[in-house]
Design a protein that fits this description.
Blueprint: E1 2-6, H1 13-29, E2 34-39, H2 44-52, E3 59-62, H3 70-88, E4 93-97, E5 111-116, H4 130-149, E6 152-155, H5 158-165, E7 174-177, E8 199-205, H6 214-226, E9 233-239, H7 244-256, E10 263-267, H8 271-280, E11 283-286, H9 295-302, E12 307-310, H10 315-319, E13 324-326, H11 331-343, H12 345-359, H13 364-380
Parallel strand pairs: 1-2, 1-4, 2-3, 4-5, 5-6, 6-7, 8-9, 8-11, 9-10, 11-12, 12-13
């Protein structure tokens, strides 16, 4: 059997983590089979995927540099994947699409698996101008076409499975929720009070966009910092890729709110630098309006950081009872939750302990055992 993992859609931290995990674990679990991972070496995120797979049993297949452009990839990936199949002279092939959508024109004769983990085409909060709304409509049509032709769909939460299946009636024969994971469970750390008295550090690790919640946190802590009676000053570290347009809008908000000394925009940084910020953080905020899982939430819990999350999408399902939730559309509620957690160290301590237990539900070992069982069953169904 030849397993091809198409990672050409990996463009951000979450995509990198998932692609690397699938490559590493499937190459071990199917050590007698061939496992290939398709990347574009002109895309920095996909180069990082290949680096994380350097010591795995995977074979890295480099697509043309032109695939860095979405349009070229869309119309070229089918022929490229076919060339891999022909080169290996192996008709017993299973293709895993990490973006949940088949290449246009993909033949029905080949077995295919969709990892459905991107709800953005179905979530109005992510829509911007008319062009982006049209793009979302196109993606929904491709998703519908893919689901009608795939053999197996894997979902990263019950939330996204219900969202997708409520829109499309023709589905694969098998639909399973497998979740995502963290690579390893870290040693539980002792709870720590804020390093500096009367200060409270908040961290978000996520691509920066209006629907991801960073703007909401800035507004909330701006309100809190203007109220001297709180007795606490709130600082906010933002980690994640950001476009020039979003950077300008975010910094304009920071300046207008008088928050320049309280907000630090780090951009994309190394894992070590991110972990250093997690150690300093008193609270991890993830107020995204569009999440099919929420890897940053369990990564924060894994590092012993209390989590404040949006009460929307998959986040309550993933955070469970270990997180505190708020309505990201309600500024007063966001600010109240932040202030409550800053004042209640006992609550934060309990959240840290609960977080360590919650993360145990989402190890990559457990996730990939489920995935490999589904792939094995699919490979035998011929």
């Amino acid at each position: 059997m030849h397993i091809i993992i198409n990672a050409l859609s990996a463009r951000s931290g979450g995509g990198i983590s998932v692609a690397a995990a699938y490559g590493n674990y499937l190459s071990k679990l199917f050590e007698l089979e061939r496992v290939s991972v398709v990347i574009c070496p002109a895309v920095a995120a996909q180069v990082e995927v290949s680096e994380r797979l350097a010591h795995s049993g995977c074979r890295i297949e480099n697509a043309p540099d032109s695939f860095r452009k979405t349009m070229n990839r869309t119309f070229g990936e089918r022929s490229f994947i076919h060339s891999l199949i022909n080169q290996n002279e192996n008709s017993d092939t299973i293709l895993i699409q990490l973006n949940g959508m088949l290449p246009i024109g993909f033949p029905l004769a080949l077995k295919s698996v969709l990892l459905v983990q991107d709800p953005s085409a179905y979530v109005a909060a992510t829509y911007g101008n008319a062009r982006s709304r049209f793009g979302s409509w196109i993606r929904r049509q491709v998703q519908r076409w893919s689901l009608a032709r795939a053999d197996l769909a894997l979902y990263t939460s019950n939330y996204i499975r219900e969202l997708i299946t409520s829109h499309h009636s023709q589905l694969p024969a098998v639909n399973r929720v497998v979740y995502n994971g963290v690579p390893e469970l870290f040693e539980e750390k002792a709870f720590q009070e804020p390093v500096e008295p009367n200060t409270f550090r908040i961290l978000t690790v996520s691509n920066v966009a209006r629907y991801k919640g960073q703007f909401d946190v800035i507004r909330a802590i701006g309100k809190l910092n203007r109220d001297e009676s709180n007795g606490v000053k709130f600082y906010y570290d933002i980690v994640g890729a950001i476009s020039d347009l979003e950077r300008s809008a975010l910094m304009a908000l920071v300046e207008a709110a008088g928050m320049l000394e309280f907000v630090s925009l780090h951009g994309r940084i190394s894992d070590a630098a991110r972990d250093a910020l997690l150690v300093k953080a008193d609270l991890f905020a993830h107020l995204s309006r569009c999440e099919s899982f929420g890897i940053p939430v369990i990564e924060a819990m894994n590092e012993g950081v209390p989590v404040l999350a949006a009460n929307l999408t998959a986040l309550p399902e993933i955070g469970g009872a270990a997180a505190v939730y708020c309505n990201p559309y309600n500024l007063d509620e966001v600010a109240d939750r932040i202030l409550m957690l800053a004042k209640d160290s006992g609550r934060r301590r309990a959240m840290v302990e609960d977080g360590y237990q919650n993360v145990k539900r989402f190890t990559w070992d457990r996730v990939m055992q489920s995935v490999s069982a589904e792939i094995t069953a699919l490979g035998q169904d011929r």
